[in-house]
Amino acid sequence: MTDPRFHALPDGRRIAYRHTPGSGPAIVFLPGYMSDMAGGKATAVFDWAMAEGRECLLLDYSGCGLSDGDFADGTLSRWREEVLALIDAHCAGPVVLVGSSMGGWLMLLLGLALGDRLAGLVGIAAAPDFTEWGTTPGQKADLAAGRTVFEDNPYGPEPTPTHPLFWTDGQAQRLLESAIALTCPVRLIHGQADPDVPWELSLRLSAQLRSDDVQVILIKDGDHRLSRDGDIALLLRTLAALA
């Protein structure tokens, strides 16, 4: 892995990133909610890209990992702006977006913004619209009233917060109720033992995408993280075949 560098946005936000040059299209990894570029899947993709001489970009959203900011201020719109700024600054040609969980929602929003520069999408337990299907009516009422919701976190000691700003923005960014105007090749990998994001959601997403080149890959015993050696090997094979 290369050492992290920092990209300064016009408002002073400093976004941590790692970039390795190489042949294209550039592979851009989008972490999940409260995750960062130090995760196992992100580092595996970056290491593979370096070994293969492929261009790759990792980053931490503001309020996450090494980047500046408060997580409570984070929204899909804000993080989309940051990723677009880094792509424009460091990737000259087409890109393949790899999105994990919430990153799979963000990759769709970014894909719509990138237009002809988008060469492909790889979703890993992609979770579009989870502010809608992932919150109860009571939680929605609390969030709409400006109250942060906390839930048990199976992946760490601290509860997982959902902040009102993120939820409100997410509700405005929902995609699954209508056709999604993306025509690039798409690969959706999902574990059928995922306790957090129903695997059927990848089938629903597949149906809504305008592209005819969509494949859904189900792993019967796969969990949400899909970080086992075999899961990562499948991800890298899928990425190599697509990119």
Automatic annotation (TrEMBL):
Location of the AB hydrolase-1 domain: 27-225
Cytoplasm keyword on record: no
Keyword Electron transport in record: no
Top-level EC class: hydrolase
Catalytic activity: S-hexadecanoyl-L-cysteinyl-[protein] + H2O = L-cysteinyl-[protein] + hexadecanoate + H(+); mycophenolic acid O-acyl-beta-D-glucuronide + H2O = mycophenolate + D-glucuronate + H(+)
Domain of life of the native organism: Bacteria
Enzyme Commission number, as recorded: 3.1.1.93, 3.1.2.22
GO molecular function, one term: palmitoyl-(protein) hydrolase activity
One Pfam family of this chain: Abhydrolase_6
InterPro entries found in the cross-reference section: AB_hydrolase_1, AB_hydrolase_fold, ABHD10_acyl-thioesterase
Keywords: Hydrolase, Transit peptide
Function: Acts as an acyl-protein thioesterase that hydrolyzes fatty acids from acylated residues in proteins. Regulates the mitochondrial S-depalmitoylation of the nucleophilic active site residue of peroxiredoxin-5/PRDX5, a key antioxidant protein, therefore modulating mitochondrial antioxidant ability. Also catalyzes the deglucuronidation of mycophenolic acid acyl-glucuronide, an active metabolite of the immunosuppressant drug mycophenolate.
Protein name: Palmitoyl-protein thioesterase ABHD10, mitochondrial
The organism of origin for this protein: Novosphingobium kunmingense
